[in-house]
Structures are given as C-alpha cells and as structure tokens.
Amino acid sequence: MIIAIDGPAGAGKSTVAREIAKKLSWIYIDTGAMYRAVALCAINKGIDLTDINSIIKEVNDIQIDISHIDKEQHILLNKEDVTSQIRTSEISNGASQVAIIPEVREKLVDLQRQLANKDNVIMDGRDIGSVVFPNAQLKIFLTASSEERANRRYKEQLEKGKTITYNEVLNEINDRDNVDLTRAVSPLIQASDAILIDTTQNTSDMVINRILDLTKDKLGVQID
Ligand code: DC
Questions:
Q1: Which of 132, 28, 123, 17 is nearest to 73 (CA)?
Q2: What atom in ligand 1 is closest to the CA of residue 127?
Q3: Measured from the CA of 13, which atom of ligand 1 is nearest?
Q4: Which atom of ligand 1 is nearest to the CA of 31?
Q5: Is-above-0.70 flag for pTM?
Q6: For 153-195, how does the pLDDT look when each residue is reduced to its tens digit (9 = 90+)?
Q7: Residues with CB under 6 A from ligand 1
Q8: CB 181 within 8 A of CB 98
C-alpha cells in the first residue's frame, strides 16, 4: 500500500510522514533527498547547475541508494552516506534546479517505484500522487501559507545556529515554489483525488491524527 504526501517546501511533509510511518510500522521515503543527492554530486564536481547536458551525463553514472537505520532514512551517493550533507540552502535550491531535468526525474522515479515494490510505504515529494503513484490508496496535499512555511524554516535555521534573516528564508521559499510549480515536467500539483490539508493554523499532531483517521477509513488499516 502507498500513502502519497505532496506539497511545497516547509509544509511539514517530512515531520508528518515520519510520524505516520512509525505509527503504521511502514517505511518512510523522502524523495526530496534523492534530488538533493543529485545536486550535491553536481556541485561537488564543479558542474554548473544550468549545464543540463553535464548533469544528464553525471546522473547516468551515479548510484543512489536508500537505506533505513533505526527507521531513519539514509541516502547514499555512490555508496557514501550523504544524509547530513544535503541539508543546506545551497543544496535545497540546487535540488529544485536539477529537478527540472526529465532524465533526472526518470531515474529517480524508477528508484521510487522499486522501493515501493518491497514494502508498504509513505512517500513524500512533489509529484508522488500525480505521477509516481497515480493509483496510491491515499493521497494528501499538504500546504501552508508561504509566510508560515518561511517562519518554520527560519526557526529551524536559528536552532541550527545559522545566521539568516526571515526575509532571506521567505525569498528562498518563494523562489523554490516558483521553480517547482512552473517546471514543464511533473510540476508540483495537487492530484485531482488528493485530500487538501492546510497546516497554516494546525499543529503537526492535528495533521498526523487527521491522516491516521483517513488511513483507517480509506485503507482499513488497524492502528493501535
Ligand atoms: O522536499 P525537499 O525540499 O527536500 O525537495 C527538494 C527539491 O527537490 C524540491 O524543491 C523539488 C525537488 N523535488 C521534486 O521535484 N520532486 C519530488 N518528488 C521531491 C523533490
């Protein structure tokens, strides 16, 4: 079975999906990490992210694997664990840039489909309900105002000791939304049968409980 959670950056997808996976004892797959790994690889090799041909060449040769250690996803780029290296603003923006390339998406979508062959999964991203798994049993589109999403990201950055202003974070969120929403291939879109949940005013616990209720009702899954 598959639960697809899509939505823009900072809507709370990963927090919610991780907790739901724990409650259901399912596997959580964060697909954004895969696009981030491609961006990291290109940046480390000094490839300009607008040089699409070089990125396509690179993506044909790289190996991306997902493993789970203590139920947490780890992402391996050519067998190296890059889980913590991909969480910078440079890589966030880079991931959005490489994600416009159809050949990059094709390779990562294949991997995403293979991962769901083995287990029940809850997968988050931008195109999971619309393109990767159009037949997913439950599709959620999680959103929040850009100001609220920027506010959450800003607080996270401060907690990590980063020096950044709220306006810089808001601009980054708006720029990334713009690239994700307007790309020609698999843009961020709410699938017609996805359930919209606006998290602007809701705590993550409220959102998690709502999705668990939907899982019980729609998938008939028993939850302790
Ligand atoms: O979810 P995230 O912020 O880690 O994703 C980083 C970027 O990767 C995002 O801005 C767009 C791209 N992405 C995508 O195009 N499709 C997905 N399924 C997941 C992420």
A1: 28
A2: 18
A3: 1
A4: 19
A5: yes
A6: 999 989 989 899 999 999 999 999 999 999 999 999 999 999 9
A7: 9, 31-32, 35-36, 92, 95-96, 99, 125-128, 176, 180
A8: no
CA 53–ligand 1 middle distance (angstroms): 20
| Continuous H helices in the chain | 13-24, 32-44, 52-61, 89-98, 102-118, 146-159, 166-182, 204-219
Q: In a 10 Å sphere around its CB, with 0-12 CB exposed, 13-18 middle and 19+ buried, how is residue 45 labelled?
A: exposed
What is the per-residue pLDDT across 49-106, written as a single tens digit (0 to 9) for each? 999 999 999 999 999 999 999 889 999 999 999 999 999 989 999 999 999 999 999 9
Residue 223 pLDDT grade (very low, low, confident, very high; cuts 50, 70, 90): confident
187 CA from centroid of ligand 1 (Å) = 10
Instruction: Determine the 3-state secondary structure of 115 from DSSP.
Output: helix
Q: How far apart are the first and last CA of the chain?
A: 18
Rounded to whole angstroms, the Cα distance separating 46 from 197 reads 40
- What amino acid is encoded at 15 in this protein? T
Residue 106 Cα, ligand 1 centroid: separation in angstroms?
14
User: Nearest residue CA, atom 5 of ligand 1?
Assistant: 32
b/e string for 204-217 if b means 16 or more Cβ within 10 A? eeebbebbbebbee
Residue labelled with tokens 């990490």 = 33
- CA of 19: how far to CAs of 70, 87, 102, 171, in Å? 13, 20, 31, 29
